């Protein structure tokens, strides 16, 4: 399904875990800042709508989308957060630079998700033109910042529940609910 068939701002609060105790880092690229500010506002408003206190949302700015990688890495290393959202807008220019920036950021953020324990949510528009960016940052297709905020809450919850499940050696059910048995299973290979 392409974005044009899905409004990025739609979410069902009944399907979203309790986020009031989570802390979120948001790293925002200053390139195409009219777009990235719109994405940030979508993310911030969705987080607060899901009961995340504003004081639990940390924002850092970086020059461009390529710097989102380092900014997110330092956020993870120095801040007590449950998830990080990186926000950028890369728009095709006259050269191949677009390709390298998009690929570099994609791979860099993927690497952070593999190498660290904190989920990093990819809220980077990679558009052919400014109109596509406008449409996806609060325009006709909704706001990708909103989508990213909801993803951040859900991934922070999975991280939290998976940690508890591991501690008690209990299964984490597909619903995301823990199945804590009366007496925790004997830990294998004790
Ligand atoms: N053209 C865009 C860029 N380019 C800048 C790079 O992201 C980076 O800051 C520079 O290469 C220095 O390392 N960045 C965007 O976010 N969006 C663009 O459209
Ligand atoms: C993504 C970019 O770096 C690009 O917008 C820069 O424009 P150009 O390719 O014309 O130098």
Describe this structure in words.
It catalyses: (2S)-2-hydroxy-3-oxobutyl phosphate + 5-amino-6-(D-ribitylamino)uracil = 6,7-dimethyl-8-(1-D-ribityl)lumazine + phosphate + 2 H2O + H(+). The protein has helices at about 35-50, 70-80, 95-115, 130-135, 145-165, and strands spanning about 25-30, 55-60, 85-90, 120-125, 135-140, 140-145. By secondary structure, the chain is an alpha/beta fold. The protein has a single domain, classed as 3-Layer(aba) Sandwich (Rossmann fold). The strands form 2 sheets. Strands 2-1-3-4 form a 4-stranded parallel β-sheet, with helices on both faces. Strands 5-6 form a two-stranded antiparallel sheet. A hairpin with a 2-residue loop joins strand 5 (about 135-140) and strand 6 (about 140-145). The longest helix is centred in the C-terminal third of the chain and has 24 residues, at about 145-165. The chain is globular, with a radius of gyration of 18 Å. The model has no long low-confidence stretch (mean pLDDT about 90). Ligand LW54GNZ2 binds near residues 66, 89 and 101.
Layout of helices and strands, plus pairs?
Blueprint lengths: L23 E6 L3 H17 L7 E6 L5 H11 L4 E9 L5 H19 L4 E8 L2 H6 L1 E3 L2 E2 H24 L23
Parallel strand pairs: 1-2, 1-3, 3-4
Antiparallel strand pairs: 5-6
Helix pairs in contact: 1-5, 2-3
The structure holds the ligand Nc1c(NC[C@H](O)[C@H](O)[C@H](O)CO)[nH]c(=O)[nH]c1=O and ligand LTPLIIQW.
């Amino acid at each position: 399904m392409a974005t044009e068939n899905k409004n990025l701002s739609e979410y069902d609060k009944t399907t979203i875990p309790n986020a009031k105790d989570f802390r979120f880092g948001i790293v925002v690229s200053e390139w195409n800042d009219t777009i990235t500010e719109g994405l940030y506002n979508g993310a911030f408003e969705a987080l607060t709508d899901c009961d995340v206190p504003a004081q639990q949302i940390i924002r850092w700015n970086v020059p461009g989308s390529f710097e989102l990688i380092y900014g997110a890495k330092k956020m993870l290393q120095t801040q007590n957060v449950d998830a990080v959202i990186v926000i950028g807008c890369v728009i095709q220019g006259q050269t191949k630079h677009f390709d390298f920036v998009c690929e570099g950021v994609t791979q860099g953020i993927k690497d952070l998700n593999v190498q660290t324990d904190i989920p990093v949510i990819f809220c980077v528009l990679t558009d052919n033109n400014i109109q596509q960016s406008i449409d996806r940052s609060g325009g006709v297709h909704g706001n990708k910042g909103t989508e990213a905020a909801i993803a951040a809450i859900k991934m922070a919850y999975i991280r939290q529940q998976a940690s508890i499940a591991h501690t008690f050696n209990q299964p984490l059910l597909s619903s995301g609910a823990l199945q804590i048995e009366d007496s925790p299973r004997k830990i294998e290979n004790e």
